[in-house]
Fold this protein.
Amino acid sequence: MTTLKPAGNTGRYRLYRELAPIIIVCALVFAVPLIFNNDYLLNKIARYLVLGILAMSLALSWGYAGILNLGQAVSFGLGSYALAMALKLKTVPIQTGSAGLPDFMAWNNVETLPWLWVPFESLSFALLAGILVPAAAAAALGWFMFRGRITGVYVAIITLATMVVVNLVIIDQQPYTGGFNGLTDLAQLQIFGISFDAYGRSTYYLVAVCLTATMLIAFAFTKSKAGLIIQAIRDHESRVRYFGYDVGAYQIFAFALSAAIAGLAGMLYTVVMEFASPTFLGVELSLSVVVWCAVGGRQSFVGAFLGAVLVAGMQGVLSESKAFLETWTLIMGVLFVLVVIFLPKGLAGLGQTVRARLRQAKDRRDEEAISQVLKPTEGEL
Amino acid sequence: MDQFVQQVVTGLSIGSILLLVALGLSIIYGSMGIINLAHGEFVMLGAYAAWMFQQFFGLGLFASLVPIFLVVAAFGWFIERYVLSFLNNRPLDTILATWGVGIILQQAVRLLVGGELRYVQMPSSLADSTNLLGVPVSAYRIFLFIAAVALFGLTWLLMNRTTIGMKLRAIVQDRSISASFGIDARRIYSLTFAYGAGLAGLAGALVSPLKSVSPEMGTGYVVDSFMVVVLGGVQSLAGTVFSSFILGEVSGVVAFLQNDTVAKALVLLAIIVLIRFRPDGLFTARIRA
């Protein structure tokens, strides 16, 4: 039973308690370069942090809005390609062909820069597009799905199928997208005179700042009125609809916000990895994101972030040897199934789940004790 | 004319493979509401079982069909008992759990048998090709078509003319009332899942002479056959048949006119639109609620 307490103080206390892990994690992220003075290692860690941002974006749509997007990598890949296109056009020794065409276009006998590429001559356009294109694409798909009141499993299937289509098209249109190879040999990103070398500290701090910002924005969103309505929709959609809220509009908004964050992560990934590839919007990555969220805790941004860093980091460490990597994938699968069955809230909800189980067990014991006491009395009657 | 017949035959051949794989998926999804992402891995297990029976016991494909069905069905039964039965009323989580099971099976096969391609020999009696309306057609593909239709017939009989099928249909309509009539839903569910898995295993064994056998071979099938099930409509076995052949013909024709990628993309797009407007599929049986 819940006991009533004065709302004001408790509310603020709860807010602080939920903010604390976010602040601790972000502070730790900023402290990492002070401890490790190794550019190669920093680049690796930055990569895991970016994947962590991606996992947070899925936690927003899956954990908070109840929209299981199995194609989260589409937004990630679109962001990644947007920035890679701009950086590709900035590559200094322009490879072959007239009018400064990217090398792979010249190899595919493309004569002029395709119209789709023209706006990407401007870096600021690309930076905006990396966030707005995924958001707009998600809003369009969201409009298509949620206006038709598609929910649950069907959302998962539609997003999965959409991702396969986008992936097929990008690989198929080699003259315009680089096909299977993706976009490689990119220039370094330069903003306000700061150049972001993938193996430099500037890139690491860029990732850390973006991580902190998105975590706070996502957290603020879940505490806003719209965020609360989104969670109400997750728990009981029709009840919220009966209250007169436009359920579809809120779902579209959450879906697009999640895609925007994934797009930002995609752009950062291009900076950290120095290329963009069709695997960035492939089935494998998309489903990995789901695993990270499930393991870390889909209803907690810090949980999802840590899930990604732990799982992807572990995979990275073990991938040095091939036999290990294969065994690791097996262990990963077993771990994932166990988490899905026994820890629906992931590691972040471990305490909660254990407490609930213990309470259940105690209730059962109490009931047994009561019935033990009651039996003889019944007999006497 | 020859071109046309050729196209129709290609489509029928794709369709019969789709039907073989989708039949098990359709039963599991239609009666238990479980989207079994491990289905492709059951197909893969069936193909590996065929390879193993041939390699180590010298059994031909026909002789090993029954043991293959039993082996893969046993896997299915085990997975239903020890994984899926924990996930009652959590449909989204069953997607995740079966996907995890798929990874485990795929990786286990890769570790135990190795990742290289394996080949299963075609039964020698079906290795030739015959003439059909002036077009040469491989005898094995005709056999696949007949096998797919026969398995469908068998499944239909099982669902509609046996006690187990009747119990299953009762549970699908109302689980608690069926339970109060003494039907053990747990047991029926396990058997259903095992049967669906066994069918997938058979499908894998039957296509193995046409394709190379590898740990990843199942992944492509699960998406395609899921699309068949969605198109055909849940709980409609006849719908599954129609939609497999429709999808087979359509992808055959588009692949002929354009290329495989465009065919795949267009089919997927059509299905996305279909789910949006008719989530229950094209051939749904109307059930009184």
Q: What stands out?
A: Residues 350-380 of chain A form the longest helix (31 residues). Chain A is about 75% helix and 0% strand. Strands of chain A lie at 189-191, 194-196.
